[in-house]
User: Which sequence fits this backbone?
């Protein structure tokens, strides 16, 4: 089963670029995922669609012959590696990608976006939003290149950061909304729709959970207040101090003992309905403050 990252990469490789955008994309890929061995530029690619994309772009841009080798490994699971070897114009290509690295921040938005596209195809991944936390990352073994990638993210108002690993640097983004903007920047429309559907669902679910938590917290707070009010009334009754309260306060206290778990809004409605005393929630609260103050004064003696 294909991963979300693979789905995005498969979609991206089907998008047509103009020549300048294609150069930015392929040079970025070479910067992150190529090795120079015996004056040959070698690429080792696992994704079939990415391999086809790089093979096609390299031939079209540099007009070179590319030796393609396909190897299949069957240790724990079947893995196919596509090896692209470039022997022609290697000095020219290496100079081209170095120039791209040094000047990409001066290029147009479209070319910088294509550069990020090449970086993502080479060493990038995005977590499936339905299975884990929101996370986008691109790895580079070159610190200078990691800083350049980070600067390009920032040029698109994406708040990426860099984390140093043992032998490499990870440029990453955690914001769900900014990851969505990045997928849009890649032009992966189908993947963007999938991502947004999941994000909307998760955000709605989180909002419902927050509301339920707030409601539960309010219930617990209300129950705690009710218990404190009952305790204060019982304290006064046990010490024969109820007569120090006026009749309206005593009425409220009587109804609190009768309905120990009702909210103050509910208690005010019950008292107003069952007696001639019309009282609001704030009035109820005012009476309980009198009870609380009397308890506090007695405890100070």
Assistant:
């Amino acid at each position: 089963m294909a991963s979300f990252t693979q789905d995005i990469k498969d979609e991206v490789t089907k998008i047509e670029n103009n020549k300048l955008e294609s150069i930015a994309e392929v040079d970025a890929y070479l910067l992150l995922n190529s090795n120079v061995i015996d004056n040959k530029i070698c690429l080792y690619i696992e994704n079939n669609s990415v391999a086809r994309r790089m093979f096609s772009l390299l031939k079209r841009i540099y007009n070179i012959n590319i030796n393609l080798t396909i190897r299949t490994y069957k240790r724990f699971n079947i893995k196919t590696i596509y090896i692209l070897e470039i022997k022609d114009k290697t000095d020219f290509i290496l100079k081209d990608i170095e120039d791209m690295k040094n000047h990409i921040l001066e290029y147009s938005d479209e070319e910088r976006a294509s550069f990020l596209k090449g970086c993502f195809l080479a060493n990038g991944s995005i977590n499936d939003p339905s299975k884990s936390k929101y996370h986008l990352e691109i790895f580079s073994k070159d610190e200078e290149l990691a800083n350049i990638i980070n600067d390009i993210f920032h040029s698109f108002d994406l708040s990426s950061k860099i984390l140093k690993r043992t032998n490499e640097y990870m440029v990453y983004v955690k914001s769900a909304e900014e990851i969505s903007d990045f997928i849009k920047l890649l032009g992966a429309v189908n993947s963007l729709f999938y991502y947004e559907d999941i994000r909307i669902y998760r955000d709605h679910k989180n909002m419902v959970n927050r509301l339920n938590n707030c409601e539960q917290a309010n219930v617990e707070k209300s129950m705690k207040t009710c218990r404190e009010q009952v305790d204060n009334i019982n304290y006064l009754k046990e010490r024969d101090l109820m007569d120090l309260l006026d009749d309206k306060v005593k009425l409220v206290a009587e109804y609190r003992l009768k309905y120990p778990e009702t909210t103050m809004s509910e208690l005010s409605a019950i008292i107003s309905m069952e007696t001639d005393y019309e009282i609001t929630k704030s009035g109820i609260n005012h009476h309980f403050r009198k009870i609380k103050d009397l308890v506090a004064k007695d405890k100070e003696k």
